Amino acid sequence: MKTVAIAGTFDSKGQEYAFVKELIEGLGLKTFTIHTGVFEPAFEPDVSNAEVANAYGADIKEIAERKDRAYATEVLSKGMEKLVPELYKAGKFDGIISFGGSGGTSLVTPAMRALPIGVPKLMVSTVASGNTAHYVGTSDIMMMPSVVDVSGLNSISMKIFENAAFAIAGMVKFESEMVIEKKPLVAATMFGVTTPCVDYARMYLEKRGYEVLIFHATGTGGQSMEALIEDGFIEGVLDLTTTEWCDEIVGGVLNAGPNRLDAAGKKGIPQVVSVGAVDMVNFGPRETVPKQFEDRKFYKHNPTVTLMRTNVEENIKIGEKIAEKLNMAKHDAVMMLPLKGVSMIDAPDQAFYGKEEDEALFNAIRSHIDQNIVTLKELPNHINDKAFAETAAQILIDMMNQKKI
C-alpha cells in the first residue's frame, strides 16, 4: 500500500493535520506523520520533533526553553532537510504533503527540495501565490494557495484541505504503466530568440538516440539545469543560450546566480557552450527598468518583458566571465562563436543588430579562454542557422562517444 508522509506542526495545527490524515487514509492510503513543531503534538506521530531536532544534533527541550521562534524554525528545518531524504530512501513514504504559513512553509520545503525529482511534493501555503522561488528552488514542489490561513477547520479551509489530500493521493496512487526507453540525457538551454537553433540541435540529437531536456534560460531554468548536472542526471550539455550572465552582470531580472556554468566543468561532463541571447538584459514592463538605463536601446518582447541591448563594455565583462567559467573545466569543453549574430533580433535589419557589440564579446572570449583546456570554434553562421546548430550537436555527440573533435 502506498504511503503519504504528512509533515507539520502537530502542536499548533493538530486539528487540521488530523483532518487531512483521516482524509488520506479514507482514500485507501497509509500515512506517515512527522512532527515539526516545538511542543507536544495533538496526536502521536511516527517521527517525533525530538528525532527531527536530533538529526541536526540539537535537543528539542533546549529549543523549547529558548523560546526563540526563528531559531526553532532554522534548527528543525535543517533537521528535516537531513532526515526526510533518509526516511524516503528507507521506503517510509512515497509522497509528502504539508500545510503552513511562511514559518511552516520554511520548515518543510527544504526537506522537500532534498527529495529526488519525481517524488510527489505538495505544500499548501499562505505564501503560495507570491514569489515562491525561495521555497521551491530548482525542485518540483507543487505550491497550492491555502486562501485562508491554516488555522482551524471552516467551510473554506476544509475544501482546500480536501482538494490537497485528493491531489497528493492521486499523485501517489496512480502511476503510468508506459515504458520509457532509457536514453542518454542531454541538457540544452534555450530562449525564445534562440529557439530555431535549439530545435534544430534537439531534432538532430533525438534522431541519433539521445533524449534532450530543454531548460528555459530565465534564471530558474539555468539553476535547474546546473542542479541536475550536479546530481549526475546529465551525460552531455548543449549550453547554447548563456544569456543569464547578462542579467547577472548588468542587473537584469533573470539571472541564475554566480554558479552558472560551474557544474559541467566540475563534473567533467562534455559541454558545448555558445553565446545565445547574450545581446540582451531582461527587465519587466518598460516602467520597471531602472532609471540609470534610460538612454539605452530597448525592445518590447511582450507586455511584461522589456529587453535591453548589451553594450560594448558589458559584453567585454560577460565574455570574460564566460571564459573564466569554462577555464574551470576538467576536459571536454568547447566554446562556439556564431560570427553573424547571437539571437533572432541580432541580425541585419533587426532591433539588436550590433557588429561592434558582438565583436567585443567575441574578442573578450578569444583573449581570455585557455585553449589548452577549452576548444574554441568560430563559425561563419548566425546562431539560428541549421548548420551552426547541427555542428554543435555533432561535436557534443563526438565528445560523449569519446571521439576526437
UniProtKB/TrEMBL annotation:
Residue stretches making up the UPF0261 domain: 2-175, 183-400
Pfam families: UPF0261, UPF0261_C
Gene3D superfamilies: Uncharacterised protein family UPF0261, NC domain, Uncharacterised protein family UPF0261, NN domain
Highest taxon of source: Bacteria
PANTHER family named among the record's database cross-references: UPF0261 DOMAIN PROTEIN (AFU_ORTHOLOGUE AFUA_1G10120) (PTHR31862:SF1)
Protein name: Tm-1-like ATP-binding domain-containing protein
